[in-house]
Amino acid sequence: MKVAGTFLDLLPKDSFSPETTEDREGFVHPTYFEGNAEKAKQAFIVRDFQTAKLSLHEKRLEEFVKQAVGKYEGAAYDFEIVEQYRNMKDVW
């Protein structure tokens, strides 16, 4: 849980989140957290009006995970991307 908390704390406080972005800026937003002393799970939504930028946001998010895990000896992580839906502009 400490690693998960460190990860959340590493996220920028003034950007990269819905409450700090405007208009068509992309963002990530935590939607789920579960954990105990041995294991924690977090889920995020990653949004952007430009589909090509989604992978950049995902890579940036994973970099924060790596930083958090690197602060704790023996810690490890899995990082999974699950696509929900596409921007309708890409579909039409």
What key phrases describe this protein's structure?
two-stranded antiparallel ribbon, 3 helices, 36% helix, Alpha-Beta Plaits, elongated, 92 residues, alpha+beta
Can you walk me through this structure?
The protein is an alpha+beta fold. The chain has a single domain (2-91), classed as Alpha-Beta Plaits, CATH 3.30.70. The chain contains three helices and two strands, in the order αββαα. It has helices at residues 2-10, 51-70, 88-91; strands spanning 27-35, 40-47. The protein has a two-stranded antiparallel ribbon. Helix 1 crosses helix 2 (51-70). The chain starts with a helix and ends with a helix.
Gap between N and C termini: 43 Å
What is the string of SSEs from the N terminus onward?
HEEHH
Output the structural class: alpha+beta
Order of strands across the widest beta sheet?
Answer: 1-2
Question: Would you state the CATH class?
Answer: Alpha Beta
| Number of helices in the DSSP assignment | 3
Question: How many structural units, i.e. domains?
Answer: 1
Fraction of residues in β-strands: 15-25%
Radius of gyration: 14 Å
Mean pLDDT: 92
Q: Which spans have pLDDT < 50 for at least 5 consecutive residues?
A: none
Helix content estimate: 25-40%
**CATH topology, which one?**
Alpha-Beta Plaits
Describe, in short, the structure shown.
With 92 residues, the protein is α+β, with helices and mostly antiparallel strands. It has 3 helices and 2 strands, in the order H-E-E-H-H. The protein is 36% helix and 18% strand.
